[in-house]
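Example 366.
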Amino acid sequence: MRTRLESRLSGLTGLPYCALTGRGATAIWLALKVFAERAPERTGVVIPVTLCTSPPAVVIHAGLTPVFCDTDPATGNLCPRALTALLAERDDILCVLAAHLFGEPADMPAIAAACDRSGAFLIEDAAQALGADGIGTYGDVTILSFGHTKIVEAGGGGAALTRDPLLAAAMQRQADALSDKSPKASAWAETYRSTYYAAQSVWDRSPEAKEWVGAVCRAEPGLYLYRLAESQTGLILSALERLDLEIACRCERAAAYDRAFAGIGTPLNRTGAGVPWRYGLMLPEEARDHAASALREAGIDASSWYPSAAPFFGDTHTYPGGEAIGRGILNLWVDDRADAERIERSAAIVSNVLTGAAANGGRQYG
Ligand SMILES: *Cc1c(COP(=O)(O)O)cnc(C)c1O
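Predicted structure in complex with pyridoxal-5'-phosphate:
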């Protein structure tokens, strides 16, 4: 079953070697451990500032240091100009992690060229982008996830893929040495969730509350690092049978959002090469939180992911692109809950919030 899953993932990405892991986050950790063996004098790992907390958390659990880099506010992906400037300043960068955020491929030719110049390894984080065109072409290692909310959701699982046989063998050794998922993992995940929401309820007034989230991330490596359970293998294989259909449905729903939201907010740039993970829309920052609450009150899920990840880890530098995303983004679901009626209703609700805000505040929103 494992071999069948490995072959399937190699077939999907064009990368011949595959190490299976308990989570996508574990797969990032595998790659980092192997890179660190090759270049022990380098300890920095570049992480795009618009991202969830698990990649920077596993950087720390690999004994390395996250170095945040700004993102492009039009896409949420790593900004090649900011990366080039950062790499020119430092000689301690082991690796750059480029995520294909919201399923949209990052600017890999420019990112890979910057990595080549500085001798840094490159990870493509395709946790949200399984099935997008060209994924895995540039990275030394490409990682996938089958966890909650991913394109193919199987209740958990991850993989690290590469075309380099030596990296592959070293990653497999790390994967074989992993423990099983702890019976406490779901309690740790619950602690993370409750801490995150407690911090979020106060961080506008007390920004230092963001460090509570980082503290939970650092506390328990077993939240992130474990092997793939045999029972997950079959679940992932059968979930993958829906991949083509899932992608087609997501593309249709994103197109329906484009039509419904024409003139309401600004959708994130999509090239057509990506797989919509969520429908991402930039709203005027004064209106975003109102729009998210109005949607939730109507029983429609919406999120404001991602806030800048840097402050969770005690980094208080300014990242203008990532902060603009954090203040303005609204994420809407493109999974099978998003039928045509719900998409229309979402657009009507957001439109009402914007016109209401304009009427109240005397402002006109574009
Ligand atoms: C979900 C996710 C991860 C981690 O995957 P898990 O399977 O949850 O560990 C890493 N990077 C990105 C961009 C993700 O969305």
